[in-house]
Amino acid sequence: MRCLRKAVNKTRWDKIRNEVIRAQVGATPVLQHVENQQIKWFGHLMRMPTNQPAHRAYNSRYSGKRPRGRPRRRWSDSVADTLKGHNTSLCEASHLAVERRLHLPATPDGTSGRKK
Known about the structure:
Residues 52-77 are annotated as: Disordered. This is Reverse transcriptase domain-containing protein. The protein is mainly α. The protein is built from 6 helices and no strands. It has a domain at 29-58 and 72-98. 51% of the residues lie in helices and 0% in strands. The longest helix has 18 residues, at 30-47. Residues 107-116 have low confidence and may be disordered.
């Protein structure tokens, strides 16, 4: 945010909210950008040939003894949570991705959020 505030020549002392600064600059929040990139990579992953290493790693299941404690968070869990926040199941999203129709709701200025 410091960089964005410098771009519009405002300081914290001006008491302007981060959302207002982002709207002036035309930037998206970082978490929204990360979610969009996750969904974009998920689409690539679903369309990959089955012999690609990334596709094989995504579909492989570990068979063996798990360590004690809470299970580790996997990348697919994060994708599933992102999709659940947008009322889409993982199965439905994989079908949409194969058809190239999987998109999260875009920001008002387009998919990247930057003004053109």
